[in-house]
Amino acid sequence: MSKEIVTTTEAQEEEAAVLAVLRGVNDAWDRADPDAFVAEYLENASAILPGSYLESREAIRGAMAYSFNGPLKGTRTSGKVLDIRFLNDDVAVVVSETGILIPGESAAPPERTAYASWVLAKRDGKWLLAAYSSSPSVAPGPGR
User: Fold this and answer.
1) Mapped to the 3 state alphabet, what secondary structure does the chain carry?
2) What gap in Å lies between CA 12 and CA 17, rounded to an integer?
3) Spatial separation of the C-alpha atoms in residues 136 and 90, rounded to whole Å
4) Whole-angstrom distance, CA of residue 15 vs CA of residue 42
5) CB atoms within 10 A of CB 141
6) Which residues pair with 99 in a beta bridge?
7) Largest CA distance in the chain
8) For the structural domain made of 8-136, what CATH number should be given?
9) What is the pLDDT of residue 141?
10) What is the pLDDT of residue 144?
11) What is the pLDDT of residues 96-112, one digit of tens each?
């Protein structure tokens, strides 16, 4: 049985490709472009957001189109990758801290900051988003 050895350069290239997908999603948010936002989502991707479960790329696109023209109009995102790991050659998990910035802000307040998990799958040599889940970074209620 032979085992393929992954070089540091190959690992760095894979990590860069995964992070480019996240950067594309964030750039699409900043342009309020729901089509670009889901361009690198699998057709059967899912997203869990506070209070909602979206079961497809089209459902995610629809939710973002509504939000970019409503409650998220004019907002931008900020983000920081906290962890990235490869479960195998075709699956990656990224944990990030993201914030929603309203016009004029350079940093998001805690109530608009969340921790997010991104699951990506490699299909035909390209990394695509399979699942996204976010949770507010500040617990609601007393004792925050």
Assistant:
1) CCCCCCCHHHHHHHHHHHHHHHHHHHHHHHCCCHHHHCCCEEEEEEEEECCEEECCHHHHHHHHHHHHCCCCCCCEEEEEEEEEEEEECCEEEEEEEEEEECCCCCCCCHHHEEEEEEEEEEECCEEEEEEEEEEECCCCCCCC
2) 9
3) 29
4) 19
5) 6
6) 78, 113
7) 58
8) 3.10.450.50
9) 59
10) 44
11) 999 999 999 999 999 99
pLDDT at 1: 46
Distance separating alpha carbons of residues 96 and 18, to the nearest angstrom: 13
Q: Which residues contact 53 (CB under 8 A, 6 or more apart)?
A: 46, 47
Q: Is the pLDDT of residue 56 over 80?
A: yes
* Cα atoms found within 13 Å of the Cα of residue 40, Cβ hemisphere only: 23
- Nearest to 119, CA basis, from 111, 128, 110: 128
Candidates 131, 137, 139; CA nearest to 53 is 131
